[in-house]
Amino acid sequence: MKPVTIVSIHRMRTAGLMILALMWTVVLAVPAAAQDYDLVILNGRVMDPETMYDSVANVGVKDGRIAVITKDTVTGEETIDATGHVVAPGFIDGHFHYTGIFGAKVALRDGRTTLMDLEMGTLGTKVDEWYTAREGKWPVNFGAASAHEFARSLVLDGYECIDTSDATNSRKAGTGWSSKKLDLEEANKVLSVVDEGLAAGALGCGSTLGYMRDGVSAREFFELQRLAGLYGRQTGAHFRYTPGSEVTEANGIQELLANASALGAPALACHFNNPGYNLVQELLVRMRARGMNVWGEIYPYAAGSTALNAVFLEPEMWVETLGYKYEETIQDVATGEFYTQESREEMLKKEPTRVVLVYKMPKSAIVDWLRLPGVALCSDAMPLVPDEVTWESPYDAAPNSHPRFSGTWARAFRMGRENDIPLMQTVAMSSYNLARPLGEMGLKAMQERGRMQPGMVADITIFDPETITDNSTYEKGIVPSTGIPYVIVNGTIMVKDSEVVQDATFSGQPIRFERVESRFEPLTIEGWQKTYYASPVDFGGGVPGSQPRNMGAPDALPDTHGHFDRPADN
Ligand SMILES: [Zn+2]
Q: How many whole angstroms from 314 Cα to the centroid of ligand 1?
């Protein structure tokens, strides 16, 4: 194959899959010359979830890209015999909160070639710093959204938080980030911080709305989605009521999707493996049928993981409203012990952001999630506490964490095998179902990943469909997956013979938009009144006294449970 052919195939992609399919035939028909490739992968079952190509073939990789997929003999400087193995697009994780390089090592063993944080992300003013810290130094591809929570932390609590690992500090620095309602001036400040990140190329807005449900008004969240939409980018959210009941979970996605459809903006339903997931999925499918770019992600575990002081774990919500018992559902990650109301209160005084497991769903639901079309897998890997591990550290040196950190992808394939889920369905969930919607936002790095096609970036995961399995458990969360002998990142072999190549060249690439001009226009009362005749009360406009106290006044006390006093003159 000559490079010119690869380029032309690549261009043809925009003309549609029909033409691509025609070109494919041409590619397959052209015999390849000897030693044309840097790397060849022979006799594997090549699976492409976009074209549904599924056949034993040889793959030639050159200059970090898939140059050819052919039945003909090919030779290269390096050769992998993939007989009996699946050759799939490298697995893509859009929800990885841990930022240490050890996390990339663990994720590589699970077949993941890209780790992004689309739910939390990084502070808008630090997007350049976040990417620069990884460029040329990261073993997998990396990307982040512009963080709603950190913009609130900065404006309301004065804390400059760069990533989720640091959020254990930012969440202690004040309570404004979570519970303070914004006035118009603060709203403009928060949005301009998020905007700085979008202009710098962040992957949309990430919002931990469910942790800020008392502070973030419906108007603020709408404006956040509007801002991301001005760039054509997604807002990814931990819904307002997650984890909640079947009704409140549905109301959470309805807020995200109602805004998305009014704005024509892309949206990501973060980890919707919760009560009400069937309605969430139906809403997403129906909106996609109407041409909206909206999608969701799940992790295949019955338990979640969060900080002990999360607002939804307060007794009024967790026990009284949702009906859970602490002693059955809230388990300490480090000690394995379940909390009682008393021991939770004691620990909150000592270590409010202590990491816990939260059991909230029956196991049988997991198989249901793994069958859902168009859904992406995610790990929601949390920061490690304490965090003393490095690239060289052995796996058992890490403190315990939720098993989703290390095992999500291999677990999905194992459970798929055990429950007769078509292999292509799991392959699609593992990469393409996230690459596709991000690519549709115009993100080039995701238009050329998540696919096994000539011209695509050579992020490739090779696994044995009969033996691939997770090995991590709730008791021992950081145990590498097995049955994945090779993982290739941008053409570089990072996992070889089931071990991470410790001295490999770090070839991880930034997953990022080009820098553009700011698109943020500060909100004004006059602007709203001119266009919509009415301005929002919570941002300082509206009719005074038209809304109950504690439900929108900028100085309102946090009101978790909906109790409020109506003004006396009502
Ligand atoms: Zn979350």
A: 17
State the distance from the centre of ligand 1 to the C-alpha of 386, rounded, in angstroms. 21
- What does the alpha-carbon distance between residue 144 and residue 513 come to, in Å, rounded to a whole number? 11
CA of 296 to the centre of ligand 1 (A): 12
| Contact residues for 306 (Cβ-Cβ < 8 A; gap 6+) | 313, 355, 356, 358, 382
Cα–Cα distance measured from residue 266 to residue 244, given in angstroms and rounded to the nearest whole number? 24
**C-alpha span between 76 and 68 (Å, rounded):** 12
Domain 89-302+361-450+462-476 has CATH 3.20.20.140: yes
Residues near ion ligand 1 (CB < 5 Å) are 238
Residue 119 CA to ligand 1 center (angstroms) comes to 7
| CB 94 within 8 Å of CB 441 | no
Q: How far is the CA of 498 from the centre of ligand 1 (A)?
A: 31
Ligand 1 centre from 271 Cα, in Å? 7
Cα 40 to middle of ligand 1, angstroms: 39
Positions of CATH 3.20.20.140 in the chain: 89-302+361-450+462-476
C-alpha 64 to ligand 1 mean position (Å): 33
Chunk the chain into consecutive blocks of 10 residues (it has 570) and report each block's average pLDDT, rounded to whole numbers: 40 47 47 75 98 98 98 96 98 97 98 98 98 97 98 97 91 93 94 98 98 93 97 97 91 97 98 95 97 97 91 91 92 93 94 90 93 97 93 95 96 98 98 98 98 98 98 94 98 98 95 98 88 76 63 42 34
Residue 120 Cα to ligand 1 middle (Å) = 8
In whole angstroms, give the CA distance from residue 495 to residue 473.
22
- HSE toward the beta carbon, residue 116, CA cutoff 13 A: 33
Amino acid at 157: D
- CA 323 to ligand 1 centroid distance, Å: 21
Q: Which fold has domain 3-84?
A: Urease, subunit C; domain 1 (2.30.40)
CATH 2.30.40 domain position(s) in the chain: 3-84
Q: How much helix, strand and coil, in percent to the nearest 5, is found in the chain?
A: 35, 20, 45
